[in-house]
Every structure is written in C-alpha cells, then in structure tokens.
Amino acid sequence: MSAGTTNFVRRVPAGEDRERLTCADCGFVAYENPKVVTGSVVAQDGKVLLCRRAIEPRRGFWTIPAGYMELGETVEEAARREAFEEACAEIAIEGVLAIYSIARIGQVQVLFRAHLATPGIAAGEESLEVRFFDWDEIPWDDLAFPSVHWVLRAWREAGAGPLGAPATNPPEDRRGVHAPGGAA
Amino acid sequence: MSAGTTNFVRRVPAGEDRERLTCADCGFVAYENPKVVTGSVVAQDGKVLLCRRAIEPRRGFWTIPAGYMELGETVEEAARREAFEEACAEIAIEGVLAIYSIARIGQVQVLFRAHLATPGIAAGEESLEVRFFDWDEIPWDDLAFPSVHWVLRAWREAGAGPLGAPATNPPEDRRGVHAPGGAA
Hints:
Two copies of one chain form a homodimer.
Chain A: E1 8-11, E2 20-23, E3 29-30, E4 35-44, E5 47-53, E6 62-63, E7 66-68, H1 75-87, E8 91-102, E9 107-116, E10 127-133, H2 146-158
Parallel strand pairs in A: 4-9
Antiparallel strand pairs in A: 1-2, 2-3, 4-5, 4-7, 5-6, 5-10, 8-9
C-alpha cells in the first residue's frame, strides 16, 4: 500500500462482514486481497536458472525469475514475462511445479517448471547477474526467500519426467499443508 | 472497484512502467492485481456438491463452493471457509485439481478436490439450496460459470485415485493452455 498522504481507516462497509481499508475523505474501499506471485524453475542440462536481485527486498540475493501477476494476463503469461524481464529468457512452460501460500504477507505463489524456448540469458533491469547453477553449486545461504528453497527442492524431487501433483507448503511451514483424508 | 464518488484517474506513478489507478484528490495508488478465487469439487459416493447461488452474479445458477481469498489465509483455508459459508460443509482437501486463469476478469482460480470431513450439508447465506448430484444429474445448462463446467470435467477425468498434474484452461479457452516443448 503506497498510501502517502491519504487518510485511510478500517471500517466495515454496508453489507459486509469484515473491516476494509476505506478512505475517510472520499469513501473509496481499497479491497486488500492476496496477490499472485508467479515464476519458474527454468532448467537446462540439469542446471537451474537463478537471478541475483538488483532491487529490494533482498537485493544481492538469488531467486528464480518470479514476480507479481498483472491484470489482463494468465499465470503462464505472467511467468513468461517475469523470466524475460529478469533474465531476458524466453521460456517454455512445462507445468505447475508448486503452489505455496504465504498467508503472513498475503501471497499465493504459482510456480512452474520450464525450459528455455530459445537459447540465451542475460541480466534484465531487476537483476545484477543471471546464471545456470548445478545442484551442488546453488548458493543456498544466499537465496532470497524461503519459497526459493522450497521450490528448488520440489523441482529436484519431481525429477525430469511428467509432473505430478504440485508441491504445497513444506513441513517446516505446516499451516498451508494439505491433510489428505482429514481436516487440517 | 466500488469507487462511488471518488476521483480516480489512470497515471504512471514514478518509477513504474504502466498506468495505475490513482486518486486525483489524495494520490492513493490503487494497485489492481488479479484476485484469487478458490473452491472445491466436494465428492461423496461419486456425487458432487453444488450450490444454487442466492447472490448475483448468476443468482439461481449452480456452482461449486468457491469465492475470493481473503488476506491472512492460505488457499486451502480459503477453500474450506467457502465450503462452510456456502454449504455449511466441513471439508477435507485432497489436493489441487485445477488452476485456471480468467484473464479477461483478472481472476486466478485454484480449485481443489475434497470430501466431507464431517457429514452434513445445508444452504448457507449465499445459497438458495445445496445438494449432491450424480454425474448424470448435473444441471449442465444451469451452471453459473464456464469454469464450473471445466472443473467438473477435470474432476471426472482425474478419477478417484491420486491426483496428478492439475488441469489448466481447456482447449476452448486456448489462451491459458500450456504449450509443453514450445512457447505458447
């Protein structure tokens, strides 16, 4: 929220059951919904593409190409756009690798497995550098976000064959985990 | 957007590359992002739970229990909440059945397969009636939205065993379809 000089208050609008961020001056209700982050584990010859962030948060740390979906695009289009913006990579999406909920910060992450559709990568404006890493070279201590750890492990576990059910939040983040056969 | 008496204009904020809805009076930038709809195909003895909508849009038509995610919840929590609100159903989520992008209206739908965790359903405030339908009884001509058709077919195709890769937008809605092995 880039509220700046605005005068927002929390109020329950007529006909609703919970407080919404409302401008006390003009009455505008700013619905705050979770945002969709989408991105891809882009693999080539068993290596994965990582980007060193040129922007905050976590400037200087490594991540997969990913970012917020914009209106008017599909999740797949958004993932391809992010790969192009951050790594000048034209990717082909293979399928959904993981869906994570980061409830604390209002995010849903839809992460794909992909490969390069055309050769070549280069640092985009939001990246300091981009490169492919062998599994053993991945800079685990310098990854930008927990979900980058999660999805890289999910990619490794999925192997190179057909994708199965997408990964969900891992055991160390129990809240989002499914409980097959029983209520969570 | 329930703008009411506000004075919003489209402007490119400093440091951004596209127009954002901005209040000309107070400068508030209302970021418009896609919203996440989450819901479930809830099955029991091979039948699926449908709810006849008591609210617009599509009042009187049938849908699966589904709705917009709220801040502070995971997608799974949101799907369980919607099933409870619309059908007084306590559900257990089995896994992700489908992910659809409805770019035209800025929606991403994350839809689960589920079953009742405790017996019993009843119409919630947003439903006129709720019931389980055999496949051959489903009121196809009175379904509320195209994605209800899509996900019911995806459920049928998935069978009752372990879930595989989630369904994505079907051929009649080509734009969101993956193109494995090539750029879409």
